[in-house]
Specification:
By secondary structure, this protein is of the alpha+beta class. It has three helices and 13 strands; from the N terminus they run H-H-E-E-E-E-E-E-E-H-E-E-E-E-E-E. The protein has one domain: Immunoglobulins (Immunoglobulin-like). Strands 2, 3, 6, 10 and 13 form a five-stranded mixed sheet that branches. A four-stranded antiparallel sheet has the order 5-4-8-9, with no helix packed on it. A two-stranded antiparallel ribbon has the order 1-7. The longest helix has 19 residues. It is elongated. It starts with a helix and ends with a strand.
Length: 165
Amino acid sequence: MKKLNIIKILVTSFLLIITGTGYAMSRFNLCLFSEVEGVVLDHGKPVVGAELERIWELGYDESTGSDKATTDEKGYFRFPKVTRFYILPGILPFMQPVIAQTINIHSEGKKVEAWMTSKWDYKEDSELGKNIHIICHLDRTPDFTGVPGKPHGAVFGVCEFVDKI
């Protein structure tokens, strides 16, 4: 009987701590892909109606997800940040996240690899160390672009990083 009471007290205390301070939302609501906004250009001109598909794959449980956006008359698109509520990675901080991130552009029957990288944490905007603002050039060949301030960080694709859109 004493063991059962101790377990109840520990579980109740844990639940009160994590829910009473908003801790649960910040600790367990993990960012898998930060907000992305950008423009799609072809030979310097905005691409209207291009469909962008964003895909993320979380390594530890092999879960995947995706969403889509379409460019407007100025070639502009936006994806909101992607967060998921996970208990285990929130409790066990030593679990190394590996999140594969991809953005493909579909335009005029062609698929262009715009963004391919891996995210190694659950922090918002950690992909580039700042908000993700990109200009994607359909007339370029996909290549690796180093991430400033991250010696081993790179993104493969046709997009360049900019400060503002």
